[in-house]
Amino acid sequence: MESPEWLQPALGYLELNMYDEVGRELDELTPAQRESLEVLKIRVSVALDQKNHSTALEWCRELCDRYPEEHVGFIQGAYCLHEIGLTEQAQAWLQSGPATLQSEPVYYYNLGCYDLALGHVESACAWLAQAIEMEPSYYDDALSDPDIQPILQRVETMRKTTTSIESDGDLA
């Protein structure tokens, strides 16, 4: 979906990592524009880029309240909670999203990361296996993800098993 013309200046500044200018552009929009899905996503993105997880979380809350069918507020909000050390709340937040989130591999990948952080190795492996099965590129993500390092060997085994099953399916 193409962004509206009134949002282009803010997006240009965002591409240049000129966050103060992004904020000024967004603040100059009409009240209706400032409450739009696009603007809330930009505000979350800016806060995350600046590693301001508390502010990003507040924007995610607003995003979820105004647009409960949108995945980004739940995914990013959970990430923010995890980053500020509230991993159990991160899981609950993510799982409180719309049922359509369950069609997203990132949903399972993040649940795997959160379960692993909480010491739930078996369920973490199951979540990660689901993510990798849905989107094989998550295997590559897992290889370089410091959160996954404690179970990297198991992830590698999962990938080999998934690849073997896929290959067997091609022969049938």
Q: Tell me the structural class.
A: mainly alpha
Overall geometry comes to elongated
- Quantity of strands, as a count: 0
CATH topology of the largest domain: Serine Threonine Protein Phosphatase 5, Tetratricopeptide repeat
The CATH architecture of the largest domain:
Alpha Horseshoe
Termini separation: 39 Å
- Relative strand content: under 5%
Radius of gyration: 18 Å
Q: How many discrete structural domains?
A: 2
Features:
172 residues; mainly alpha; Serine Threonine Protein Phosphatase 5, Tetratricopeptide repeat; 2 domains; 11 helices; elongated
Kindly describe this structure.
This protein is an all-alpha fold. It has two domains: 86 residues, Serine Threonine Protein Phosphatase 5, Tetratricopeptide repeat, CATH 1.25.40; 69 residues. It has eleven helices and no strands. The radius of gyration is 18 Å and the shape is elongated. The chain starts with 7 loop residues before the first helix and ends with a helix.
